[in-house]
């Protein structure tokens, strides 16, 4: 079964908003064995939409469209659906009742005609009930292709995909199994990892595919298998993961898509009943944001001081001015003092600190562009490492974030039996 995802909206084409809907839909369909044929972004133009429908007709089994279902004049998807399917709009009473309850009951305001028009749907469509919004989804089939229209608002789209589309596709279509296993590695680049596992990769059977998904300081290795026998696919994937673990165990930090390094260190901190704080300069709070993005992080993450300015390091963190004067703000000594002082301030077991020159200009700072000092205060010592992550600025910050988490992970996993 093949599917195409179409996002509609001029705001996407001009870069005003980023399309996150396609990624969510693709991942959701992939989990139930639907192959994504392509993703397309098109304008809010009736003819452009019609041309896209014609192009996709009978080329794929399923077309999922997001966007253009709002109540304003620039939202043309619903009327275009009617033209393509030679249908007409009618009022769906169940949708009208829901919209009325939402506007008058929840938002406490009088419903307008524009709100009521959200209940207009093609007469022959299967209405997908949108419990969390006013625009319903629409499911219509023409010849061998099903076209599904969803609102572009992400949380409404996600509700409809999870509660309406996925159950309906599972029930009505016979699909192969697609099994994925993602191995998370940190600390080595793509080429080095590839060299280490070359023989292992060459031994993979034809129905198992390996993909390298690199990012600064980390590489995800995704194994994918497709077939009719789910048990056999899982058995094969698991056996190759075990053999891979024997080769690169030193850089593997997890085996699941959702087990990022911040999730892994969070689980271990929670298990060991340890806490952590951060003092950040060049990373500007990125480490704190990463740690606190994990649900339940309050059990181990106590807080952060983003001491971006030198005076903040002195006034809030209590770094002696003469220490900064004697060693420079970008130095091992200052990084160490930041880690120790925030650890004391927050009364934690661990503390991470960063200070560096991310660029893009060197200014009056002595440190070279890309220089970063990372300090990790543990219950027993302070570890300070110096790096040069080069340029551009975004690369420096991202790599400093990853390296900080990697240092933390390495330290707390020392106590794992």
TrEMBL record:
CDD domains reported in the protein's UniProt record: cinA
Domain MoaB/Mog, chain residue ranges per copy: 4-172
Domain of life: Bacteria
InterPro entries: CinA (IPR050101), CinA-like_C (IPR036653), CinA_C (IPR008136), CinA_KH (IPR041424), Competence-induced_CinA (IPR008135), MoaB/Mog-like_dom_sf (IPR036425), MoaB/Mog_dom (IPR001453)
Stored SMART domains: MoCF_biosynth (SM00852)
Pfam family, one: MoCF_biosynth
Family: Belongs to the CinA family.
Protein name: CinA-like protein
